[in-house]
Amino acid sequence: MAITFNCAQCGKSYTLDDSLAGKQAKCSCGIEMTVPAPSAAPVPPPIAPASPFAAGQLPPAAPMPGQPMPGQPMLGQPMPGQPMPGQPMPGQPMQGQPMPGQPMPGQPMQGQPMQGQPMQGQPMQGQPMQGQPMQGQPMPGSPYASPGYAPQGGGTADGARVEALFKWYWIHLLWGFLTSCIIVGIIGLIASAVYQFMLIYKLWSLIPRERAETTPGKAIGFLFIPFFNLYWIFVAIHGLAKGLNNELRSVAPGKQVSEGLSLTFCILSIVNIIPYVNLITGTVNIVIMIILMKQFTDAGVALANSRGR
After folding, report:
1. Distances (CA, A) of 60 to 8, 49, 66, 69
2. Which of 180, 181, 291, 301 is most exposed, with minimal Cβ within 10 Å?
3. How far apart are CA 290 and CA 263, in angstroms?
4. Distance between alpha carbon 260 and the CA centroid of its chain, in Å?
């Protein structure tokens, strides 16, 4: 079997017997080279696969420029199952349209009120809650809601207020005495004391400041100062009787307060500090206090009515 090879330098072809494989040989160009070993049997070329097209048939032509490949959409057309441009996906709302179950823009959610409208069960703006009075109206049960009470600026608003305060003072005092054996009675006595202080404050406000011995705020506030209040009770209570009498002397002398009764009340209030003695003086002082508060109320109403307040 012959060995065919070429010179590595000049490229000259040589064909030698395979028995010379591995021997040294010299080319005509002068270079020495080793005769190569015989090569393996040549591999037959692969057989080309048969054309899928029948004899005489041509493959499908490529699409024209601007035309889509087979199975592809036209330019500007969506893929199968895809929406047209500007169209929503299946199950999605149109642009500007709400999702299913969602309100239109500007519309409230289901169960929610329109803009500017109150929630269900809530009053309109400017309207009171259910059970609450209109603005400027008194709460039910308030002294200012009592029959005969006139608003500020009416004919006898101050007189009506004085009467209302005395009524509520008397109601809570009676409530406290009738139920003094239980806690509710104590609450009634406390409420009675509050209305009594409010009544005294209002009566002091009816006396012009230039003729008043003190101001309404001091008359009440200084009664809470320990030890000093033993003196101040004569100013706040006995001084009030004298001040009202001075104002009523020319307009309603028949409604004047007993200054002797007010002085007695102040003295017994101090004596009530003494243990055991207060068992007797306390009861007497309570009776005097009720009579005195009634005289104060009548004097205040008369004074307010004389001024048309």
Report:
1. 49, 18, 17, 11
2. 181
3. 14
4. 59
For 243-267, the pLDDT digits (tens) are: 999 999 888 888 899 999 999 999 9
pLDDT band at residue 157, thresholds of 50, 70 and 90?
confident
Please report, as a single letter, which amino acid is at residue 48: A
The rounded distance, in Å, linking the Cα atoms of 306 and 184 is 40
Q: How far apart are CA 172 and CA 303, in angstroms?
A: 25
3-state secondary structure 152-176: CCCCCHHHHHHHHHHHHHHHHHHHH
| Distances, alpha carbon 8 to alpha carbons 5, 26, 34, 143, 308, in Å | 9, 11, 10, 130, 141
What is the rounded CA–CA span in Å between residue 158 and residue 308?
Answer: 9
Whether residue 186 contacts residue 176, with contact meaning beta carbons closer than 8 Å, is answered with yes
Measured over the CA atoms of residue 121, residue 124, residue 125 and residue 127, the dihedral's sign is: negative
Length of the chain (residues):
309
SS3 61: coil
Name the CA dihedral angle for 150, 153, 154, 160, rounded to a multiple of 10 degrees.
40
Instruction: Report the C-alpha dihedral over residues 171, 173, 176, 177, rounded to 10 degrees.
Output: -110
- Cα separation of 22 and 43, whole Å? 24
181-220 tens-digit pLDDT: 566 667 777 888 899 999 999 999 999 999 999 999 999 9
Amino acid letter, 25: A
Q: How many whole angstroms separate alpha carbon 297 and alpha carbon 289?
A: 12
- How far apart, in whole angstroms, are the C-alpha atoms of residue 167 and residue 210? 30
Is 180 within 8 Å of 189 (Cβ atoms)? Answer: yes
**Where do the structural domains in the chain lie, given as residue ranges?**
2-29, 156-304
Strands 24-26 and 2-6: what pairing? Answer: unpaired
Q: Tell me which residue of 167, 192, 169 sits closest to 180, measured CA to CA.
A: 192
